[in-house]
Write a structure and sequence with these properties.
5-stranded parallel β-sheet, single chain, 4 helices, alpha/beta
């Protein structure tokens, strides 16, 4: 069991894959920080369909977490960068990744090494169809 884990995403629509990633984070850690992509991040990096605004995605995420009794163990923060704040947060133990973004977790660990921080355990969650 980890004490503090990080998971990041846009979490638009909160589909089964998102739920699997989030559920895994809570299953293996006491405390979870969710980095929810900001509207600026979405505008810069997401070129797909229309994505709901941050405020709505956060509200939907909080509702889902509350329904599952997890709201008291989470901190939700906006993120504007694919690597921060996970690369520089000192109290993290692990980060949840999928096969699709595992290389980002590895890059975060390389950045952490440059900052003399411990590498994060990469908790890989299988893709859900």
């Amino acid at each position: 069991m980890y004490s503090h884990i990080f998971v990041a995403g846009t979490f638009d629509g909160l589909h089964a894959g998102h739920q699997a990633v989030i559920t895994t984070a809570f299953r293996v850690s006491e405390k979870v920080t969710i980095g929810l992509t900001s509207d600026g991040f979405v505008a810069r990096f997401k070129i797909q369909k229309t994505i709901h605004y941050y405020k709505e995605r956060k509200r939907n995420l909080e509702t889902w977490l509350d329904t599952h009794g997890l709201l008291n163990r989470v901190t939700i923060i906006p993120i504007d960068d694919p690597y921060e704040p996970a690369a520089s947060m000192k109290d993290l133990d692990a980060i949840v990744v999928t096969a699709e973004n595992k290389n980002r977790g590895e890059h975060i660990n390389a950045l952490r090494q440059g900052l003399a921080l411990s590498p994060l355990a990469l908790i890989e969650v299988p893709m859900v169809a």
